[in-house]
Protein: Kinesin motor domain-containing protein
Amino acid sequence: MTGNTTKIEDPSSTDEPKKFTFDFSYWSHDGCKEEGNGYYGPDTSHANGKKFCDQMKVYNELGVGVLENAWEGYNSTLFAYGQTGSGKSWSMVGYGVNKGIVPLYCENIFKQIEEKKAGGEKTEYEVTFSMLEIYNEQIRDLLDSKTRKGGLKCRQHPKQGFYAEGLKIVPVSSYVDIEAKTEEGTRNRTVASTAMNATSSRAHTIVGITFVQKYINAAGEETAKTSIVNLVDLAGSERAESTGATGDRLKEGAAINQSLSCLGNCIAALADNAGGKKTRVPYRDSVLTKLLKNALGGNSKTIMIAALSPADINYDETLSTLRYADRAKQIKTKSSVNEDPTAQLIRELQEENERLKESNRIWKSDHNHRRR
Ligand SMILES: Nc1ncnc2c1ncn2[C@@H]1O[C@H](COP(=O)(O)OP(=O)(O)OP(=O)(O)O)[C@@H](O)[C@H]1O
Structure:
């Protein structure tokens, strides 16, 4: 990785290395040292110490933007893609003191709320949390261990799009609350070990954090801004033979790959459309793509993290992840601020009223003019 370019070379071939350019290319394979508290920071004495990217750097460059968007009332989606064991959970959630984007985002949102309150702001803040997983095309509520057999239904709302019906959405008032809920959800996750990664997650996990700000606007009206942040940890896109998968594990692998290939098809169609084509986007082909529809083609600012393995045996997987990400970067989403519908309606009615008054005034002056 050099600057924002990722270069991949097949050691068993004489082909030219392939280059991919992204907004950021982060190196975290070596060049780090463990600090006293267990945090992995850059090792300045190592040749790759300068380019080593620690968790805080990723948060500062990606997470902070998500936080700023949330304050402005935009939806954001962050999803992590890549083969099993490549570091998706590491980037999104992290381990121990090496916190990933999700905990750092949560920690900071409450810190900033407290700062605003201490500064005498009258705004009311509400934060809610939900956590679900898609396992073998079924939706399980991770905050409800008694999710009925067959899972939650995926329904479509005319305005808000696809959602999981009956999903538990719990209010949270501190980072500690979120931590406890995340732990509860993680315990319920479908985790089974594969030969490649002892804690490999077998399902796609979606954490939803809603942030509502209620306040009185300049015109004295009660209004609200809402932002939904979706954090999507996709299950590994491994090949069956390298993970030693058989039986149930192999069936799961097939279901995971079906969802991921559906996601790939949607990304390819959206990328075509961004280039001016009119391709139908097959969102309905999997639960994952239904629930991610808004993130991919709707109202959301979306970030994709592609986690890569630097090992030569993973060359094919790594190249396919890079190609996946290369297509994804062509997608353009349109995001807008989520205002309270009543406040929006009042404003639209007031504007309509002004327009009617104005046309009435013109009509009256015309009428008087003709009478004279
Ligand atoms: N940048 C990193 N620095 C240090 N350790 C890392 C880094 N990235 C990943 N790891 C370690 O590698 C292992 C696998 O990472 P992780 O669990 O994040 O993979 P994953 O892509 O989420 O896998 P799966 O799809 O199977 O859940 C973990 O033990 C993690 O601590």
Observations:
- The radius of gyration is 24 Å.
